[in-house]
Amino acid sequence: MIEVVIGIIGLLVGFVFGRYLLNKIYQDLEIKATEKANSIIKEAEIQAENLKKEKLLEAKEKIQELKAQFDADELERKEKLQTAENRIKQKESSLNQKLEQYKKDQAQVDLAKKEYAALLENNKIKEAELNDKIHQVKVQLERIAGMSQEEAKNELIFNIVEQAKLEAQAQVKEVIENAKLTANKEAKRIVIQTIQRTAAEHAIENSVTVFNLESDEIKGRIIGREGRNIRALEAATGVEIIVDDTPDAIILSGFDPIRREIARLSLHKLVTDGRIHPARIEEVVNKTTKQLHEEIMEVGERTVLDLGIHGLHPELIRMVGKMKYRSSYGQNLLQHSREVANLCAIMASELGLNPKLAKRAGLLHDIGKVPDDQAEIPHAILGMQLAQKYKENPEVCNAIGAHHDEIEMTSPISAIVQACDAISGSRPGARREMVETYIKRLKDLEAIAFSFNGVSKSYAIQAGRELRVIVESEKVTDDQADVIAFEIAKRIQNELQYPGQIKVTVIREKRAISYAK
After folding, report:
1. Of 190, 213, 322, whose CA–CA distance to 264 is shortest?
2. To the nearest whole percent, how much of the chain has pLDDT over 90?
3. 444: closest CA among 392, 386, 491, 395?
């Protein structure tokens, strides 16, 4: 028990002693911190005083600099003011001199005005005297001529107008003749050179519609049991297959050349393979259709690559490929378009125009003949709309729409495309034409000529390329013959459709006949 009390007393003594030591240490630290803070404050005050002295010195130096700059600017400003003041004094002196001169000039002007007024008054007197004399002369002239002044003036005007008409007609006729000689010569040179530089085929390949067979036995296999094979083939291709007595051949009939080509290729594969049944037919037709569409795209790409045309929309390239299976009057449309493109490029080069743009317009001019959807508008307008849809050049679009005069031409390239289209279509052997259509065109030409007064005979010659008209000399003058030729050509151009151009020749002659008895 005593030991415990002694232990507690020891702890209490230790605690009191430790607390005393801690207080002593705290007091020492507080004294040292106070001394340290006072020392730092003194150092800061010394530094602030030094910094204040430095800033004051800098401010004084800056003030001195600004004052010196201000004095210099003030001196410069005073010099400028002095210069301006001297200049103003000089101008003032000059103005005073001019004012003195002006006063002298004004005095002279006043004197000239007085002299002019006197002259004017004198002229009025003389003018009155001259009018009296003119009146007397007019009276004498009317008495001598036997007509009034108004009648004489009208007669003179009439004679001048008639003479001017005759001279104008002669001048116009001379200008037209010179223009015809020069223009025809230059146009013929360009067209002939263009044609000569283009190698074109006369025989154009058309879509095949007759499928040849090795023997008539294959016809039965194509027809199939109860006609199921031929019905499946017609349903898959959309082409009517005619099996008749024609030896070793069947006929593929359809308005769409691409479908006829699909049917021909499919038949060739089926006959070569030997397996002909409805399922196989459908499989072959689908495969052939896909291959033909790929071939169409390939033909289009190869065509634009051969012609050096770049940046064409893929859909337009596909339509160019479809031209291979289209024909116009028996002429293959793709070959015709390629030929027109080359002709346009050559002719544009001869005329100093853009040959690449002309070639592009020539290739696309008949693009409206191969649309996917049949529209009830002319193919030129449809082609123009397609070109506009696929962001073609405005000059190309206008050339496509105007090559059959459906719209107005706005570019020389449009005229070139129209001319080259006519050149390609009117080459001998390029197109087939039905005899009835040919005869009707000849009759229409002659009928247009006979519709004019004074025409006695009319002949369409050179396969309808020229119309010769004979007029009666008693009813038609030479000048009227020129007018009749122009009017006939204009009516032919507006009313008929024809390839190339038609020359109109009006013949007027006077024959004197007498008989010796």
Report:
1. 213
2. 0
3. 491
The tens digit of pLDDT for each residue in 321-357 reads 888 877 766 677 888 888 888 888 888 888 888 888 8
d(CA 43, CA 38): 9
HEC profile of 284-342? HHHHHHHHHHHHHHHHHHHHHHHHCCCCCCHHHHHHHHHHHHCEECCEEHHHHHHHHHH
Res 58: pLDDT? 86
Both tokens of 237, joined, read: 């291709």
Give CA–CA dist 198/195, Å, rounded.
5
Q: Give residue 226's region: left, alpha or beta (phi > 0; psi -120 to 50).
A: left
Distance CA 209, CA 153 (A): 82
Three-point CA angle 441, 447, 451, nearest 5°: 150
Q: Which of 259, 366, 260, 378 is nearest to 319 (CA)?
A: 366
Residue 314 pLDDT greater than 50, yes or no: yes
Helix (H) or strand (E) holding 397: helix 394-402
Angle of helix 355-364 relative to helix 278-307, nearest 10 degrees, comes to 160
pLDDT tier for residue 199 given thresholds of 50, 70 and 90: very low
Q: What angle in degrees, to the nearest 10, is found between the helix axes of 394-402 and 412-426? A: 40
Cα atoms found within 13 Å of the Cα of residue 81, Cβ hemisphere only? 6
